[in-house]
């Protein structure tokens, strides 16, 4: 037992000369080590200390040490991969081969998973993948492949190595592989808001941008459901532009028609508008169109305000009594003036609730302007001489105003209900995705 302790001390120090002396004095000492109660084999100690010469000497004298496991089920290759010792990894692979690459620890990790999680030199990942490409298909807890771990542990270098060495051969099935939650590597990159990872993934031809997970969410949905910050908005815009460009290329190849310039200027609005059925668009606020005609709207309300204010200002005290028209003139003038004040103060017409307010004020002003018109005709001496055509025209105008006002109210209700449902769904899905992601990350960190 004393010799075994001395052997471990020599290996710990990395003294190869003294090690050879001990072996010459006791040639069976390495064979007896397996029957002792040490938690690590001599090779484990040499690997942990980074003594490449000592590890090479141990392998030459007892190759079976490469398959020995410590108390956690880690082989020497697990430890060398975690420590990033490229030379020792090569020596261990030369002796252990495929079996060493596919050896699982008690937590179900193969050496490739450990190398990815620890974020060491990408050459270690390169050596492991070259020696055993099958290890990239080994799944850990939650069904994650090595690709998923690259995203979770922000190891872009390892991801590029695996995609280059394996993805080109195994194709889209490998690049779009899903874990138990149905998440692809693009889903995880979106959940972690890793912009550099997302840009790299979308540059790969085989990546499916619109793939859905078990909750029916694409990577774009996950970003939209996440808390809004500068990074998420930047990623959202990038994903929408990428989706829009792919859709435009597909549309051009199918119809040979020129792309919509408005979609280039505003890809977010174009993408969402294009995805809606025609009947739903009828009940949706088109805030972009009203924003584009902001100047014309200002001119119209200015004319209405002037048309109602001038008669009151120029009222002849000796003329007919206009007291009956004061209320209708006021109700016409006030909404028009309110719209002018809102527009001149920088009131945004991109907000849908603001659009509803402006439209409702406009309908009110036009309606009471029509009432002023009818009242003026009835106040004439020939009030009974209003022909049927004029009366029908006025009734049609009032009917049209009532219809568009009702439509405007329906649009508001639809907008409110849609936003409430989206908020509830977002809260539930965000909880499911984030909780599942956190549990997966915690379990992997425990494994490592």
Describe the SSE topology:
Layout lengths: L1 H12 L2 H10 L3 H5 L8 H8 L2 H10 L14 H8 L2 H17 L8 H8 L3 H10 L14 H7 L3 H15 L1 H4 L9 H7 L3 H8 L16 H6 L5 H26 L5 H5 L1 H8 L3 H4 L5 H6 L1 H20 L12 H19 L7 H28 L8 H60 L1
* Rg from alpha-carbon coordinates: 37 Å
Number of helices: 24
Kindly state the percentage of residues in helix. Answer: 55-70%
Could you tell me the number of beta strands? 0
Structural class: mainly alpha
> Which of globular, elongated, flat, extended, rod-shaped describes the shape?
rod-shaped
The residue-averaged pLDDT reads: 79
Largest sheet: none
Q: Secondary-structure element sequence?
A: HHHHHHHHHHHHHHHHHHHHHHHH
Walk me through this protein's architecture.
The chain has 448 residues and is mostly helical. Helix content is 69%, strand content 0%. The longest helix is centred in the last third of the chain and has 60 residues. Keywords: ANK repeat, Membrane, Transmembrane, Transmembrane helix. This is PGG domain-containing protein. It comes from Saponaria officinalis.
Features:
ANK repeat, 448 residues, 24 helices, mainly alpha
Short summary:
Pfam families: Ank_2. This is PGG domain-containing protein. By secondary structure, the protein is an all-alpha fold.
């Amino acid at each position: 037992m004393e010799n075994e302790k001395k052997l471990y001390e020599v290996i710990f120090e990395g003294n190869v000369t003294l090690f050879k002396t001990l072996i010459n004095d006791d040639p069976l000492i390495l064979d007896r080590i397996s029957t002792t109660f040490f938690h690590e084999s001599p090779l484990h100690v040499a690997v942990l200390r980074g003594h490449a010469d000592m590890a090479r000497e141990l392998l030459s004298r007892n190759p079976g040490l490469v398959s020995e496991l410590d108390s956690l089920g880690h082989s020497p290759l697990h430890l060398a991969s975690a420590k990033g010792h490229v030379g020792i990894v090569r020596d261990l692979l030369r002796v252990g081969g495929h079996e060493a690459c596919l050896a699982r620890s008690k937590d179900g990790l193969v050496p490739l998973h450990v190398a990815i999680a620890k974020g060491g030199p990408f050459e270690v990942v390169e050596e492991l993948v070259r020696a055993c490409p099958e290890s990239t298909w080994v799944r850990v807890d939650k069904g994650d492949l090595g690709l998923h771990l690259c995203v979770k542990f922000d190891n872009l270098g390892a991801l590029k190595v695996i995609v280059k060495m394996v993805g080109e051969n195994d194709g889209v099935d490998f690049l779009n592989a899903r874990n138990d939650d149905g998440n692809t590597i693009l889903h995880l990159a979106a959940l972690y808001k890793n912009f550099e990872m997302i840009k790299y993934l979308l540059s790969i031809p085989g990546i499916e941008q619109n793939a859905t997970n078990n909750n029916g969410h694409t990577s774009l949905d996950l970003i939209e459901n996440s808390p809004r910050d500068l990074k998420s908005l930047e990623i959202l815009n990038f994903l929408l532009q990428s989706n829009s460009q792919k859709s435009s290329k597909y549309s051009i190849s199918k119809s040979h028609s020129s792309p919509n310039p408005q979609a280039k200027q505003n890809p977010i609005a174009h993408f969402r508008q294009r995805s809606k059925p025609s009947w739903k668009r009828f009940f949706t606020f088109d805030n972009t169109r009203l924003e584009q005609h902001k100047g014309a709207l200002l001119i119209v309300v200015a004319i209405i305000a002037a048309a109602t204010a001038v008669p009151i200002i120029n009222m002849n005290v000796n003329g007919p009594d206009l007291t009956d028209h004061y209320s209708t003139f006021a109700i016409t003038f006030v909404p028009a003036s309110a719209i002018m004040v809102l527009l001149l103060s920088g009131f945004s017409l991109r907000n849908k609730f603001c659009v509803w307010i402006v439209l409702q004020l406009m309908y009110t002003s036009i309606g009471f302007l029509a009432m002023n018109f009818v009242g003026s005709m009835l106040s004439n001496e020939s009030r009974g001489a209003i022909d049927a055509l004029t009366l029908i025209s006025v009734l049609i105008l009032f009917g049209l105003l009532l219809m568009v006002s009702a439509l405007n109210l329906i649009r508001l209700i639809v907008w409110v209900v849609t936003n409430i449902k989206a908020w509830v769904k977002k809260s539930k899905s965000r909880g499911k995705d984030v909780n599942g992601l956190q549990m997966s990350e915690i379990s992997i960190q425990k494994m490592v």
